[in-house]
Amino acid sequence: MTTGSPLRVGIFVFDDAEELDVVGPWEVLAAWARLSELRPEVLTFSTDGAGVRLAKGLRIVPDASADDVGALHVLVYPGGQGTRRLVRDREHLAWVRAVRARVPLVTSVCTGALVLAAAGLLAGRPATTHWGAFDELAALDPSVAADTEARFVDDGDVVTAAGVSAGIDMSLHLVARLESPEAARDVRRAIQYDPAPPV
Prior knowledge:
The chain has helices spanning 19-35, 82-86, 90-102, 112-118, 134-140, 166-178, 181-190; strands at 8-12, 41-46, 52-53, 59-60, 64-65, 74-77, 105-109, 126-127, 145-146, 152-154, 158-161.
């Protein structure tokens, strides 16, 4: 991906976001930033710039507020119980639509897809989410072509990932897409990500 300025990736954080939805992509993308000659900037931001408490208690102090984050090339929108509140927040959904209009690539992890759907970003498009949230996705927008098998779905300017750990897979895909498969393999080796579940 060639741009006139350094690639900037923003991970939106909010109260009750799922920890791995946030830190999984962060780990992959921050490792990429250290290894890549593209030197992408990866940062976190919250609505007002204040700290947030994630679903299991991890606290994060973001780098910026939504107003101050600046231009982004990629938005990562995590899931978690906090999305259930945000899908009903008209002001927030208007913000999501406005972000979509100016950010070339919008991505979600897990139930972050519910917020994208509520904002109208997934209408008529293929998408995925956590295995336990497909009924909620259909209720929010029955036109979404739900993929219940994929770890992530790349539909061009919108990429959605399945539940929690799938955000790591999606983020490696983003590295491959934005730079190269070789760069993604370098990142995968650096973080020693080679899934072989013990159970």
